[in-house]
């Protein structure tokens, strides 16, 4: 087809800088939404564990919304929808500082919080209730039983699913391109438009995604083996 | 909110059809079902390769599954949309590229589900088939796969939910499906993004929530049939 490959053209000067900036934005979205998502997931799991119907229903609704609506639409709701609720002054300020990345982090973090809280919950549920009763009967308090008996097993059971969510989140950061966050896929698209180097631009971005995904998969398999629950 | 629904409900359902291209919810459903139907045979082959004898075919299948799982779907769509027309030399329809990307992506995931169904069957099934003198192909296609696929029907329906959600990415490459139509409506109306995207989210929610409830129901039915017991439904 007479196409001359020239990775050098994309891997130097201005374009290299764009790729690195994109990678940085991808990692910022990934790391921040992972941390916020995990913390929120723990909070949601605790709220759902408390026997109070209205709050339990709210958490369930939150989880179902995030599981049954495409992630892209969740991003749109925050980016296009939430902005009109805010006063104009706040919006102007947000546009000045480049709020897209903030909206992306909020949307992805809430989405992952919903999924991760379900993973925690299923980890908790797969521990037999008799273990709690046994722990209480040997004199542990409720909190003591949770800290020393239930949670050490529950988080190990939830770990593989949480690591799977981590990989999905990393790949999901690419959706932020749709609301204009200048992350890796966005930059690949931009470089392609500027330089007409389709294969090089997408090739490099794909290679970076694959490298980091493989690192996450590799780490996941090590952690899953290391913290596998051996007694059940 | 009601005015938006009143004004745009037809556009939401079928796009500009019959005066223009089919779009909206109908397009989303067509893309999703076609993707699932094309994915299914590919996924069965991948599952057979992954669970079969170790060798070159298994290595290729493993490599394929791992690579696809390491790439964001958006990247795959970019490849299919921008690079493939360059290679084959003529432009292809955006909806078609979207389906191709989803099929490649979902083959890896659906393949894993079917492979889990195959490895989940008792070893005796395969041994009994071998004892009867059946070769590999009749054993697989007449004994193992019918049971394995029946057992993973909930997983397959669940994957349809995922495909419907993934088809929303079509809006990025201008496939006139549900999300794209709503983005158009949003740029017409300008002042009501919250309502417009609320409606969009609600449509997806109703569709996917119904499907995931169906998945749960199927799962109960199938597990009761598998164990031969009636599962008592929890009264919530």
Automatic annotation (TrEMBL), chain A:
<dbReference type="Pfam" id="PF00528">
    <property type="entry name" value="BPD_transp_1"/>
</dbReference>
<dbReference type="InterPro" id="IPR010065">
    <property type="entry name" value="AA_ABC_transptr_permease_3TM"/>
</dbReference>
<feature type="domain" description="ABC transmembrane type-1">
    <location>
        <begin position="23"/>
        <end position="220"/>
    </location>
</feature>
<feature type="transmembrane region" description="Helical">
    <location>
        <begin position="167"/>
        <end position="186"/>
    </location>
</feature>
<dbReference type="InterPro" id="IPR043429">
    <property type="entry name" value="ArtM/GltK/GlnP/TcyL/YhdX-like"/>
</dbReference>
<feature type="transmembrane region" description="Helical">
    <location>
        <begin position="68"/>
        <end position="85"/>
    </location>
</feature>
<keyword id="KW-0812">Transmembrane</keyword>
<keyword id="KW-1133">Transmembrane helix</keyword>
<feature type="transmembrane region" description="Helical">
    <location>
        <begin position="198"/>
        <end position="219"/>
    </location>
</feature>
<protein>
    <submittedName>
        <fullName>Polar amino acid transport system permease protein</fullName>
    </submittedName>
</protein>
<dbReference type="GO" id="GO:0043190">
    <property type="term" value="C:ATP-binding cassette (ABC) transporter complex"/>
</dbReference>
<feature type="transmembrane region" description="Helical">
    <location>
        <begin position="25"/>
        <end position="47"/>
    </location>
</feature>
<feature type="transmembrane region" description="Helical">
    <location>
        <begin position="137"/>
        <end position="155"/>
    </location>
</feature>
<keyword id="KW-0813">Transport</keyword>
<keyword id="KW-1003">Cell membrane</keyword>
<dbReference type="GO" id="GO:0022857">
    <property type="term" value="F:transmembrane transporter activity"/>
</dbReference>
<dbReference type="InterPro" id="IPR000515">
    <property type="entry name" value="MetI-like"/>
</dbReference>
<comment type="similarity">
    <text>Belongs to the binding-protein-dependent transport system permease family. HisMQ subfamily.</text>
</comment>
<feature type="transmembrane region" description="Helical">
    <location>
        <begin position="97"/>
        <end position="116"/>
    </location>
</feature>
<keyword id="KW-0472">Membrane</keyword>
<dbReference type="GO" id="GO:0006865">
    <property type="term" value="P:amino acid transport"/>
</dbReference>
<dbReference type="InterPro" id="IPR035906">
    <property type="entry name" value="MetI-like_sf"/>
</dbReference>
TrEMBL record, chain B:
<dbReference type="GO" id="GO:0006865">
    <property type="term" value="P:amino acid transport"/>
</dbReference>
<dbReference type="InterPro" id="IPR043429">
    <property type="entry name" value="ArtM/GltK/GlnP/TcyL/YhdX-like"/>
</dbReference>
<dbReference type="InterPro" id="IPR000515">
    <property type="entry name" value="MetI-like"/>
</dbReference>
<comment type="similarity">
    <text>Belongs to the binding-protein-dependent transport system permease family. HisMQ subfamily.</text>
</comment>
<dbReference type="InterPro" id="IPR035906">
    <property type="entry name" value="MetI-like_sf"/>
</dbReference>
<dbReference type="GO" id="GO:0022857">
    <property type="term" value="F:transmembrane transporter activity"/>
</dbReference>
<protein>
    <submittedName>
        <fullName>Polar amino acid transport system permease protein</fullName>
    </submittedName>
</protein>
<feature type="transmembrane region" description="Helical">
    <location>
        <begin position="94"/>
        <end position="116"/>
    </location>
</feature>
<keyword id="KW-1133">Transmembrane helix</keyword>
<keyword id="KW-0813">Transport</keyword>
<dbReference type="InterPro" id="IPR010065">
    <property type="entry name" value="AA_ABC_transptr_permease_3TM"/>
</dbReference>
<feature type="transmembrane region" description="Helical">
    <location>
        <begin position="70"/>
        <end position="88"/>
    </location>
</feature>
<keyword id="KW-1003">Cell membrane</keyword>
<keyword id="KW-0472">Membrane</keyword>
<feature type="transmembrane region" description="Helical">
    <location>
        <begin position="196"/>
        <end position="218"/>
    </location>
</feature>
<feature type="transmembrane region" description="Helical">
    <location>
        <begin position="128"/>
        <end position="150"/>
    </location>
</feature>
<feature type="transmembrane region" description="Helical">
    <location>
        <begin position="25"/>
        <end position="49"/>
    </location>
</feature>
<feature type="domain" description="ABC transmembrane type-1">
    <location>
        <begin position="25"/>
        <end position="215"/>
    </location>
</feature>
<dbReference type="GO" id="GO:0043190">
    <property type="term" value="C:ATP-binding cassette (ABC) transporter complex"/>
</dbReference>
<keyword id="KW-0812">Transmembrane</keyword>
<dbReference type="Pfam" id="PF00528">
    <property type="entry name" value="BPD_transp_1"/>
</dbReference>
């Amino acid at each position: 087809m007479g196409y001359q490959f020239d990775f050098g053209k994309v891997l130097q000067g201005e374009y290299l800088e764009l790729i690195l900036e994109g990678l940085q934005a991808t990692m910022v979205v990934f790391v921040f939404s992972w941390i916020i998502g995990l913390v929120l997931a723990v909070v949601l799991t605790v709220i759902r564990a408390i026997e109070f119907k209205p709050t339990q229903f709210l958490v369930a609704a939150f989880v179902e919304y995030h599981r049954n609506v495409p992630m892209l639409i969740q991003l749109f709701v925050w980016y296009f929808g939430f902005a009109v609720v805010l006063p104009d002054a706040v919006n102007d300020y947000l546009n000045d500082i480049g709020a897209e990345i903030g909206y992306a982090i909020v949307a992805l973090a809430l989405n992952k919080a919903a999924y991760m809280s379900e993973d925690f919950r299923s980890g908790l549920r797969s521990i037999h209730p008799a273990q709690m009763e046994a722990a209480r009967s040997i004199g542990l308090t409720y909190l003591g039983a949770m800290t020393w008996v239930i949670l050490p097993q529950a988080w190990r059971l939830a770990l593989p699913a949480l690591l799977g969510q981590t990989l999905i989140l990393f790949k999901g950061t690419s959706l932020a391109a749709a609301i204009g966050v200048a992350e890796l896929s966005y930059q690949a698209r931009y470089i392609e438009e500027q330089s007409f180097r389709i294969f090089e631009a997408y090739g490099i971005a794909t290679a970076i995604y694959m490298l980091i995904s493989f690192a996450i998969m590799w780490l996941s398999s090590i952690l899953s083996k290391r913290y596998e629950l051996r007694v059940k | 909110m009601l005015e938006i629904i009143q004004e745009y409900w037809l556009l939401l359902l079928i796009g500009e059809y019959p005066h223009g291209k089919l779009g909206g919810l109908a397009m989303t459903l067509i893309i999703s079902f076609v993707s699932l139907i094309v994915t299914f045979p590919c996924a069965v082959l991948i599952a057979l390769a992954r669970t079969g004898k170790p060798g070159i075919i298994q290595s290729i299948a493993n490599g394929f599954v791992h690579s696809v799982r390491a790439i964001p779907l958006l990247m795959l769509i970019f490849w299919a949309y921008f690079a493939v027309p360059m290679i084959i030399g003529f432009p292809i329809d955006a909806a078609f590229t979207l389906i191709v990307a989803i099929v490649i992506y979902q083959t890896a995931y659906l393949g894993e589900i079917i492979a889990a169904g195959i490895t989940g069957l008792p070893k005796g099934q395969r041994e009994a088939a071998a004892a009867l003198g059946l070769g590999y192909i009749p054993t697989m296609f007449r004994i193992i796969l019918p049971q394995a696929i029946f057992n993973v029907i909930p997983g397959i329906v669940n994957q349809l939910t995922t495909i419907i959600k993934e088809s929303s990415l079509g809006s990025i490459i201008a496939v006139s499906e549900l999300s794209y139509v709503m983005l158009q409506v949003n740029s017409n109306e300008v002042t009501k993004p919250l309502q417009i995207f609320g409606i969009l989210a609600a449509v997806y929610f109703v569709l996917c929530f119904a499907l995931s409830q169906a998945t749960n129901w199927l799962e109960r039915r199938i597990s009761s049939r598998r164990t031969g017991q009636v599962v008592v439904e929890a009264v919530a």
